[in-house]
Design brief:
The complex is a heterodimer. Chain A is built from 3 helices and 2 strands, in the order αααββ. By secondary structure, chain A is mostly helical. In chain A, helix 1 (5-14) packs across helix 2. Chain A is flat and about 55 Å long. Chain B is an alpha/beta fold. Chain B is built from 15 helices and 11 strands. Chain B has an 11-stranded mixed sheet with strand order 1-3-2-4-6-5-10-11-9-7-8, sandwiched between helices. Classes of the chains: A mainly alpha, B alpha/beta. The interface between A and B is large, with 51 and 74 residues.
Amino acid sequence: MSIDLDTARKVAHLARIRVEEEALPALASEFNTILGFIEQLQEVDVKGVEPMVSVTPMRLKRRDDVVSDGDQQAKVLSNAPDAREGFFAVPKVVE
Amino acid sequence: MSELTKLTIAAARDAMASGELTAVELTDACLEAIDGAAALNAFVHKTPEIARDQAKAADARRGADAQALNGIPLGIKDLFCTNGVPSQAGSGILDGFKPEYESTVTSRLFEAGAVMLGKLNMDEFAMGSSNETSVYGNAVNPWRRGNDEAALTPGGSSGGSASAVAADLCLGATGTDTGGSIRQPAAFTGITGVKPTYGRCSRWGIVAFASSLDQAGPMTKDVRDAAIMLGAMAGHDPKDSTSADLAVPDFEAALTGDIRGKVIGIPREYRMEGMPEEIEALWAEGRKMMEEAGAKIVDISLPHTKYALPAYYVIAPAEASSNLARYDGVRFGHRAKLAQGDGITEMYEKTRAEGFGDEVKRRVMIGTYVLSAGFYDAYYNRARKVRTLIKRDFEQVFAQGVEAILTPATPSAAFGLGEMEDADPVAMYLNDIFTVTVNLAGLPGISVPAGLDRQGLPLGLQLIGRPWEEADLLNAAYSLERAAGFVAKPAKWW
């Protein structure tokens, strides 16, 4: 499996990380090094093996469906880069 | 520099209980040591006011019923959210972020009476093995190669924690370990580090890297201190559904040093091609020490060991790409300056390009790739199947009666900062070759300093235990510690 510039560009966009065009070849080459390393996994016989979903064999605790917290608007917004009138502000999304 | 900061947690606790020492004196000594150690770049946000207030409160509480860590000054890895105190995970994208809440682990430490001296340097989002990916710059190892002044890495990702404990800036520190980030830096700096069983410590309020692998643990001057500190950190937390609802044993009480009849396994797959002779010799020495202490040594096989790192470099980036999606410039941290006409996608892309460092970007993108349509089965699902096999390897040897496994902690001693600059990313990943299996299998592991190499740098041995058997594991480590008799300290140059 080899990653070309188009794939690198697409992955960067999917990850929502801007990568300048001139940085793509180096990025694709790093991807290929890492994927070449990962490729060893293809040697392993995994027939009939279940993919791990939980490392400790225990049932996740359930909790009562009750309100345990809330009314923290000021705290929730206190770290926002742009908060206005009690909301997070972002560039226009809907035309 | 005051000798007080050299005390272990146990010794300081006893001195405070008998009235020979106050928490305020001890805290002031640590704050002074920190101010004198800027060259190590271990503490990146100092909290002297909080520390002095907590120390005063600890002195007021002093008495027979004092909590386990009453008045003990600790450093906290920057990955832990601490109320009102910068918590950046070593990243530019969390620049200016001050949590409005306290992580469960730090809350528990404070309830146990601990004093917070400040936040500790680390690799960005805990991704790294040398503390060189931090937005704060490199943390520096207090150890040097003889008279050579070259700056060495304290390891990573918990590099600031390791450096601070080894240089006696604090009595202990918190770390986190996703692939070796407590045990590798502990080995590089001659201290003790424990990665508990997955689920032993709550992950709530710890900035997430790979949620199925991350565990917090103590980094301390010796095994007894690790036992004391782990006892205070551990326990069920309703806010983390993966934290185990199991009683936390008295780990310190388990330290008898008696390992007669214990079955210790030596995995043949950990004998790596090109492993330095000194590591091999130390491992053989460790085997001999445990045998002489009365343990029964058996050779074992963990056949899927060589696939652990490749599986890790699918699973950890996959989980990271999902966890780090939250850094979007909307709710906290950095937002890029936008150009006229930029929409929300440009905001995300520019913010993340500016805020994340190269290694983090690389891993987020690899994770995105292995989870993308068409590759999910070939990479992600296959890696999870291999993970099942790696865990099964351990289950089989435990079922044969093996109670702990002895391995080297790292494939080398600390290397120079910048030495790996031109290497490809995979060369750096090999640092975790002996530690990463433990995270994939959810097991407890401990790194114990056991010797020095020819250049005078510390080397560590790792013991791996059965799930939830940290008490037993700590006792085996205590026996190894006593046999190894490691007392070397770095000569002060900072």
